[in-house]
Structure to design on (961 residues):
């Protein structure tokens, strides 16, 4: 039987506000336990929440960046459940009237086509604290530093049909929130988390299968693996006549499997109701206009601009806008190289990204600054060095050996363009290889490559290939 | 000295006839003498009080004193007070020393009042008799076998017995006005949003409001001047200018239109109470007020709606008392569930548990629409009733409670009958309106209260009309025998 996979995603993006969503405490990551929780975060008797306006503006930014509607009136609701790291016994979230709804984002598929994924809603809510089950003798510790950190929960429609599509969507959302500067996107620190709903059904079937939820997986790679594992698991169960249980499952990256989480929430009734401590959130047109004015250039616009302005292919443009840092890097290189836009794109997408991937780095910790790469390209384009030499200089730059011009100077890598010098070199080769000269002159044109190779070898690659070719041809004719 | 109003004491202090320290010592003495009988204080803050009195006297010495400088007051034990036990009348918070001041506590501190102590109350403000306190029932100073009303019963009894010239209270369904009526003092519940709720331990957030209890309307106005105002820490407080409520107390009431809701004068209202209210109405009429009957047709729905909304909110508000971070924790919990179950079972009293369970039920999926949502719709209907009424009248007048103070234990096992003693006050909270209760006479030596309800933010008008009555009567000057 052929199967169809259906995936829906809930992303929790931690908003990059300085203070918490309902209190003035700092949101900084990594502080000593319980030092960034004030009375409001602790849920002391009598305290009240006050909404952080910055979180609201970030949610509006997201709406504008994802072609979504901003609710003129949205409502905060209490989600009631008991857990030690939930100080008030309820989480302030949004339920019936979220701040953002009906958006979409276009993702690039492997076949080059794009697909539109719809965003059902995005709502503001507060994060809970952390329960620490290690380091305490037969007890649990509670760290409330994270309690009250603002989250934007972004819920997609269940319309991704493979792990690859799901990852493409996640990466697109990840790119967007970073472009918008509303989330640092750090998955290791939990600033960007994802719950994945997976179900399968026989191809052609209209009804959705029973889904399972994969929770809190902190890398794209693991999410992809977890989905693939889960799809196989579900198909195996259904194929052998079994039934899928709706449950939350945990992915174990070391064993590459998912397993049922002791589900504390299965029978939970969250008893949502509007939070009487907070008035409905009313958003004016003026505020939306103001946020719109401050909106940065977003991926789709940037891509189009790169194509128009720099003459890039759609493929290269996609790579170069994949993160804001990447795009900024590219534009700096273009600037430093005096507008060698295509050359810059080639060097980044092939040499630099290849090296970064190999080393497990990304553009933020590249050893080669945009200034140096730009200079390197400039030196190629002004014929100071040959492309071949450039590659060796690239190596030197990677090893942090300093400035491009200094390296050229120090190692004498300047291209030789003096015709007399090149002719002298050619003469040496001709006299050292008489048989090849005879063969060439007898019509073995392919031997030209041999002479080029010899010349390059002797010069240490410092000759301009075209110039060398021309001079060789003239000399060999004689 | 203790029979004087805050206004009179302020004059004496300004005239240097007395010092704040002397005044404070006097009231502390009285509390020592009478509190055992009344049980109106949970905590007496003698040291804090004497220090504050010294500071206040220093202000008088340097001519920086304001109208409330050096005047002793008491806070209902629902308000968080920095460094002072804040129990909310519950075993759950018996060990809770608040690390911060409620906004209104800060404000009264800044006005240089002297805090005598924290007054007894029904646990988490749930009750109409003050019998639901972990610290035992408060006795009505007019008759020690009777209840003082609730939940601000400690504040009302303390003011009535002259253990403090004024006190704060909170009113969620009548918790300031009903005990004020039953103890023969003046109690004002301001418009929802007029006074900050920050630091006031929540019972039902959309209904709770802080207000003053005092001997006279004039004193209540003086206190409201300090209490009222926008607070950025309370999102439901309203940013609207605060007038000087003492300035309009003596405005003419000629031509004021007073509405009498017929639903508030029907069965259940004790005849002697009705008679005294009718006498008061006659006085207003004689003074040129225009009296007219009005209808608030959804009145009968207010108690049922209230007993869905208030428990629903409380079930969520009280979830934080879980034995994890502060407050009562059961001994030797075996696991997390045991910790939750026993801490909450042992830490809460029965009325609190009853309401938490009712509220949890009302919010449960499958019942939410039938209970919570419907109650909210009723709430809008009740608000509309008042909107209609205020098209034709300036204030609404009624009894505060259907009977004078009842006996201790009389209704303790009959929650419904207990709930009905708030029948005239509850709708006001559902509609967010201000209401005041002032003494309107005695029935068998027990005080009864008259309630005036105003439109939103019309506290000044209420105080003006209530003050007029106190100018022509001396019910508010009556004090219980033995105090």
């Amino acid at each position: 039987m052929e199967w169809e996979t259906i995936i829906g995603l809930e992303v929790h993006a931690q908003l990059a506000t300085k203070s918490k969503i309902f209190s003035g405490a700092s949101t900084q990551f990594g502080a000593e336990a319980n030092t960034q929780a004030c009375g409001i975060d602790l849920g002391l008797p009598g305290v009240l929440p006050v909404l952080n306006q910055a979180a609201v503006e970030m949610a509006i930014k997201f709406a504008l960046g994802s072609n979504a509607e901003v609710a003129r009136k949205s409502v905060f609701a209490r989600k009631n459940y008991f857990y030690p790291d939930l100080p008030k016994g309820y989480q302030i979230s949004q339920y019936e009237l979220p701040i953002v709804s009906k958006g979409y984002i276009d993702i690039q598929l492997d076949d080059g086509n794009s697909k539109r994924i719809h965003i059902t809603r995005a709502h503001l809510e507060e994060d809970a604290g952390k329960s620490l089950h290690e380091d305490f003798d037969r007890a649990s510790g509670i760290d409330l530093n994270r309690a009250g950190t603002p989250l934007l929960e972004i819920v997609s429609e269940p319309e991704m049909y493979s792990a690859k599509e799901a990852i493409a969507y996640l990466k697109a959302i990840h790119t967007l929130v970073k472009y918008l500067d509303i989330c640092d996107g750090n998955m290791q620190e939990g600033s960007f988390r994802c719950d994945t709903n997976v179900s399968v059904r026989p191809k052609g079937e209209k009804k959705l299968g029973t889904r399972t939820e994969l929770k809190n997986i902190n890398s794209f790679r693991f999410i992809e693996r977890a989905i693939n594992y889960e799809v196989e698991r579900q198909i195996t169960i259904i194929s052998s006549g079994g039934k899928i249980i709706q449950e939350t499952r945990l992915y174990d990256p070391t064993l590459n499997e998912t397993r049922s989480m002791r589900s504390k929430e299965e029978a939970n009734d969250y008893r949502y109701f509007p939070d009487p401590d907070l008035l409905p959130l009313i958003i004016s047109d003026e505020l939306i206009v103001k946020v719109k004015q401050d909106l940065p250039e977003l991926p789709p616009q940037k891509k189009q601009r790169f194509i128009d302005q720099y003459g890039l292919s759609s493929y290269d443009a996609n790579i170069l806008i994949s993160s804001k840092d990447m795009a900024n890097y590219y534009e700096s290189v273009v600037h430093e190289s005096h507008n060698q836009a295509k050359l810059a794109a080639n060097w980044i997408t092939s040499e630099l990204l290849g090296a970064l991937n190999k080393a497990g780095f990304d553009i933020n910790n590249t050893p080669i600054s945009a200034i140096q790469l730009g200079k390197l390209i400039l030196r190629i384009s002004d014929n100071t060095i040959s492309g071949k030499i450039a590659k060796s200089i690239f190596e030197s730059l990677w090893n942090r050996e300093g400035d491009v011009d200094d390296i050229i100077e120090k190692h004498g890598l300047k291209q030789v363009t003096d015709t007399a010098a090149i002719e002298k070199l050619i003469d040496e080769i001709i006299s050292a290889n008489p048989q090849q000269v005879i063969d060439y002159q007898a019509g073995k044109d392919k031997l030209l490559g041999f002479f080029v190779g010899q010349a390059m070898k002797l010069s240490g690659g410092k000759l301009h290939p075209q110039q060398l070719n021309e001079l060789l041809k003239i000399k060999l004719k004689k | 000295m203790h029979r004087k109003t805050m206004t009179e004491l302020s004059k004496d202090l300004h005239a240097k006839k007395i010092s704040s320290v002397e005044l404070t010592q006097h009231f502390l003495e009285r509390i020592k003498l009478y509190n055992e009988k009344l049980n109106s204080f949970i905590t007496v803050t003698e040291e804090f009080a004497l220090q504050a009195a010294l500071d206040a006297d220093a202000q008088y010495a340097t001519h920086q004193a304001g109208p409330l400088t050096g005047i002793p007051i008491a806070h209902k034990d629902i308000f968080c007070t920095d460094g002072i036990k804040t129990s909310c009348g519950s075993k759950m918070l018996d060990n809770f020393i608040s690390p911060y001041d409620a906004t209104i506590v800060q404000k009264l501190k800044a006005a240089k009042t002297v805090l005598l102590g924290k007054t007894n109350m029904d646990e988490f403000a749930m009750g109409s008799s003050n019998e639901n306190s972990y610290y035992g029932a408060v006795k009505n100073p007019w008759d020690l076998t009777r209840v003082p009303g609730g939940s601000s019963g400690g504040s009302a009894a303390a003011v009535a017995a002259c253990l403090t010239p004024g006190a704060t209270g909170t009113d969620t369904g009548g918790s300031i006005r009903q005990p004020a009526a039953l103890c023969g003092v003046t109690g004002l519940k301001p418009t929802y949003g007029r006074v900050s709720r920050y630091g006031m331990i929540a019972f039902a957030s959309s209904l709770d409001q802080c207000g003053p209890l005092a001997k006279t309307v004039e004193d209540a106005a003086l206190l409201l001047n300090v209490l009222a105002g926008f607070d950025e820490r309370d999102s439901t407080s309203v940013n609207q200018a605060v007038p000087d409520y003492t300035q309009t107390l003596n405005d003419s009431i000629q031509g004021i239109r007073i509405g009498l809701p017929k639903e508030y004068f029907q069965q259940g209202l004790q005849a002697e109470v009705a008679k005294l209210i009718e006498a008061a109405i006659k006085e207003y009429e004689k003074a040129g007020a225009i009296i007219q009957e009005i209808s608030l047709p959804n009145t009968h729905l207010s108690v049922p709606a209230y007993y869905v909304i208030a428990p629903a909110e409380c079930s969520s508000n009280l979830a934080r008392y879980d034995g994890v971070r502060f407050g009562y924790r059961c001994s030797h919990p075996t696991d997390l569930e045991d910790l939750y179950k026993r801490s909450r079972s042992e830490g809460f009293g029965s009325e609190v548990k009853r309401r938490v369970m009712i509220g949890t039920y009302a919010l449960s999926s499958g019942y939410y629409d039938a209970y919570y949502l419907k109650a909210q719709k009723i709430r809008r209907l009740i608000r509309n009733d008042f909107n209609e009424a205020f098209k034709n009248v300036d204030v609404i007048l009624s009894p505060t409670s259907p009977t004078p103070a009842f006996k201790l234990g009389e209704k303790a096992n009959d929650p419904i009958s207990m709930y009905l003693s708030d029948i005239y006050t509850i709708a006001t909270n559902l509609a967010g309106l201000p209401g005041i209760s002032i003494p309107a006479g005695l029935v068998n030596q027990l005080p009864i209260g008259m309630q005036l309800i105003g439109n939103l933010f019309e506290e000044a008008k209420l105080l003006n009309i209530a003050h007029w009555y106190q100018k022509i009567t001396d019910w508010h000057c009556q004090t219980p025998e033995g105090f």
Remarks:
- Chain B touches chain A through 43 residues (CB under 8 Å).
- Chain B has a mean pLDDT of 97.
- The first helix of chain B runs from residue 6 to 14.
- The longest strand of chain B covers residues 435-443.
